[in-house]
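Entry 14. Ran structure prediction on the chain below.
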Amino acid sequence: MRVPIDAIFDAFDGPLLLVDDTERQRMTRVLQASRPAVENAIYRIFSEALRGVNEGLDGARVDVRLVDDGLDIEVLEEAETGDFESDFTLSPGDVEKLTLRIIEPLKQAAAAAAAEEGRSLNNWISAALARHLERRSRQGRREMRRAARDARRAGRDAASDDEAGLD
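Output, structure tokens:
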């Protein structure tokens, strides 16, 4: 998705009509000279906002790039790291047997997905379960970070109120 920055600079066209030609030319030059700094500031604002958005996403992230005519914002799928599977790698003697009752269409879909990945159905289900548990673990860590951030904000707000003499 492309977000054009020109609209910000175009917004000055109307107000510039209120000043005489000589002053308008000077102000136009100032605006043109400040464009790289303004673009950079807009990029930093978007990056910071998207950092918060990315904390709440699971399995994807939003990336922003400054390009010639604006900002390019893209949602990217995160590659699975594989770390979750290594956490659950067991020796053959440690494997537990599980009888699983599952509806036939779901079993067929899982078997097809396993075959596409060149895995056995058992291995594919084990890996899918490990991925799910890792996502839950990441979600828990995100929630803990969010709670810590909220507590820091509340502390800063309370300190600001104390400094202002508010109770």
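The beta strands are 2-4, 60-67, 70-77. Will compare against last week's run tomorrow.
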